[in-house]
Design a protein that fits this description.
Elements: H1 2-6, H2 9-18, H3 29-37, H4 46-54, H5 59-62, H6 71-85, H7 91-100, H8 116-130, H9 132-137, E1 141-144, H10 148-164, E2 172-178, E3 185-189, H11 212-215, H12 225-234, E4 242-245, E5 270-273, H13 274-279, H14 283-293, H15 295-304, H16 314-319, H17 333-344, E6 348-349, E7 355-359, E8 365-368, E9 375-376, H18 380-390, H19 397-400, E10 414-419, E11 425-431, E12 436-442, H20 460-471, E13 486-492, E14 505-511, E15 523-529, H21 539-543, E16 547-553, H22 568-578
Antiparallel strand pairs: 1-7, 2-3, 2-12, 4-5, 6-9, 7-8, 10-11, 11-12, 13-14, 15-16
């Protein structure tokens, strides 16, 4: 009302056409026509005019370049409907125009603006904090966290490497680079091509403007395993804790089939210490470890580390099972990268930060990021153990070999891969104490990639490797410093306990108080019967020491998840042992039935005292005196 009292209709129209914001650097409709279509206003078609007419209401949201993907389509259709209702176009013209809106081609003049996904992310943050009007008309000056050089390099590397694997049906990728000590976002690549054509959203597909890094919910595969083992280390397990990698059946839920995980390479390795179970990304041991620590504890750890989609709610507790250890839930790349930053920062979590300062057109500071110490969500000692394992190339030799894309010679870098069973998602996330980099590749429509794609060899790993090498030009390598409460100790390379004669040893790190205090319990000396071959000595044989001793290796595991009294873990171990003919793994199970009666001991013969007889010529000698005094 006030506007109409103060300005004439022509003045209002003039401001609307020449001064209103149309998104980005476009102010006024002529500037918008050039920016979006490369035309003069007089050359615009009906459809193009309808798109532009809808932008000024909320340009940060409706802009086809920087707004919500596809939002301009519904807005243009609304404009066309109003034009038909007001008599400017016919129903036939409206319907024909609506068909053309999704297929409209923009000039791409916004291609030149830097870090488009990051800029769009920042605009959304600003809109949430200050509102759309101030963003479009306030002349805000914004200082962000972006490292422009690293951003450009990341975009180029992602695009180049995806081109190399397009024959493996890899259609898209995304990358995040974060400073783990502050949470500052240094680079964000939300897709391989920001200006790729939009695809039908109803079918679950999106064009290049869809920011996979911040919006995509994808399954992380084995990239969640470090959090599983971190939870275990917080519960007293150690990198030398022994766990059996054998085929094991886990009970399913109500009316569900049993769950039997398979390893990436189809092999089972038998006894494996947790260092090598994590380093080689063994599926079975990860599921067993999750069963040992419990789903709730794991979800709490993951949520506290920044994986907001894994909050330990009742819904998630019912939804997720043990398969979550292998990435059976959905996460965002920005959250997963930030979670790995917790390991890099010694257990301290920082929220991802994109904006450092905001000033208005007059220079007044509207916002300034307050540097915080972050929140300690994981013990520093646990963070160090995980970081050390993930940076130890020897820990992953069995699966990845000595020269995979995860290894950068001469550098100390912690890294982990993740690939879903159906090859729909492939990840690599790695870090130093100064920088953490996360990479995802896959297809926006969730279609599977070629089965030949191999984690650590193709897909995300080469992209991660190149971005990390680029980052190391400016940022330091190396993991966090070892906490004083972490000690090194020689252990038995096979059993994980203190060194045992005849067994190889290696050095391992432990949190004080969790280190082994004896040899591994797998080494057992068994008493065997000497009277019944192939059987354990009976209690009677042991009692009279009639047995022989022999050393064996005995594997036992309790089943923590069976609800029917069965020990499926031990059943799996026993079945695995059937294929191993070595006698040392097969102590007798039967006990001999030998019984040995106690031998009767003869009682001493008593000598009768002679009775004096009057006919005797002798008299008994007097008894000697016995001293009852104690001997000193």
């Amino acid at each position: 009302v006030q506007i109409e009292r103060k300005y004439s209709k022509d003045e209002i129209l003039q401001m609307y056409l020449n001064e209103a914001p149309y998104g980005g650097t476009a102010w006024g409709v002529e500037s918008a026509a050039k920016q979006y279509f490369g035309k003069k206003t007089s050359e615009l078609s009906l459809v193009e005019s309808a798109i532009l007419a809808g932008l000024p209401q909320r340009p940060s949201y409706y802009s086809p370049y920087t707004g919500e993907p596809g939002a301009y389509i519904a807005r243009a259709e609304h404009v066309l409907r109003r034009m038909r209702e007001d008599g400017y176009i016919t129903s036939t013209e409206e319907e024909e125009a609506k068909k053309q809106v999704p297929a409209i081609v923009f000039s791409g003049r916004e291609n030149s603006f830097e870090a488009p996904h990051f800029v769009t992310h920042v605009r959304k943050l600003l809109a949430k904090q200050f509102g759309d009007d101030l963003i479009e008309t306030g002349g805000l000056r914004v200082i962000t966290t972006l490292d422009s050089k690293l951003q450009r390099a990341s975009e180029d590397i992602l695009r180049e490497e995806l081109e190399k694997v397009k024959t493996l049906d890899v259609g898209n990728g995304a990358a995040m680079v974060i400073d783990p000590q502050s949470g500052e976002i240094l680079a964000m690549v939300g897709s391989k091509d920001y200006n790729a054509e939009q695809i039908d959203e109803e079918e679950g597909s999106f064009g290049g403007k869809f920011n996979v890094a911040t919006q995509g919910l994808r399954q992380p595969g084995s990239a969640l395993k470090p959090i599983v083992y971190a939870t275990a280390f917080e519960n007293g397990y150690t990198p030398s804790s022994l766990i059996l990698d054998v085929a094991t059946e886990f009970p399913g839920g109500t009316d569900e089939k049993p769950y039997t995980p398979e390893n990436y390479d189809g092999k089972f390795r038998g006894p494996v210490q947790m260092r090598f179970a994590l380093g080689n990304s063994i599926n079975m041991t990860a599921v067993k470890t999750l069963a040992l620590v419990g789903l709730k504890d794991f979800l709490e750890t993951a949520y506290n580390m920044g994986l907001t989609t894994l909050e330990p709610t009742q819904t998630n507790m019912r939804r997720f099972g043990l398969s979550i250890a292998l990435g059976g839930g959905e996460v965002r790349l920005i959250d997963l990268t930030s979670a790995y930053g917790v390991f890099a920062a010694g257990g301290i979590s920082h929220e991802p930060v994109a904006i450092l300062e905001v000033k208005d057109r007059s220079g007044k500071t509207l916002f300034k990021e307050q540097q915080t110490k972050g929140e300690q969500v994981l013990a520093p000692e646990v963070s160090y153990l995980i970081s050390h394992i993930l940076s130890d190339n020897n820990s992953r030799l069995d699966v990845f070999g000595p020269s995979s894309w995860l290894h950068i010679p001469g550098r100390t870098i912690a890294v982990k891969t993740g690939t879903t069973d159906d090859k729909r998602d492939n990840w690599t996330v790695g870090f130093t104490k100064d920088i953490v980099i996360g990479v995802w590749v896959g297809n926006n429509d969730n279609s599977p990639m070629n089965p030949k794609l191999a984690s650590g060899v193709t897909g995300a790993a080469p992209i991660w490797n190149r971005i990390m090498k680029e980052a190391l030009r400016e940022y330091s390598d190396g993991i966090m410093d070892k906490p004083e409460n972490v000690i090194a100790l020689d252990v038995d390379s096979y059993g994980g306990g203190l060194p045992k004669d005849g067994q190889e040893i290696r050095s391992e790190y432990f949190i004080k108080g969790t280190e082994p205090t004896g040899i591994s319990p797998i080494y057992q000396t068994v008493k065997l019967s000497t009277r019944q071959d192939g059987k354990r000595a009976s209690p009677d044989e042991i009692r009279v020491h009639d047995y022989k001793e022999q050393d064996f290796i005995v594997f036992t595991e309790d089943d923590p998840v069976s609800g029917d009294g069965k020990n499926r873990w031990q059943e799996g171990i026993d079945k695995w042992l059937e294929g191993n003919g070595d006698e040392k793994y097969h102590p007798p199970r039967e006990t001999s039935d030998v019984k040995i009666e106690e031998e009767k001991k003869d009682e001493p013969t008593k000598t009768p005292t002679p009775t004096p007889n009057e006919d005797d010529e002798t008299t008994p000698a007097p008894s000697p005196t016995v001293s009852l005094l104690p001997t000193l």
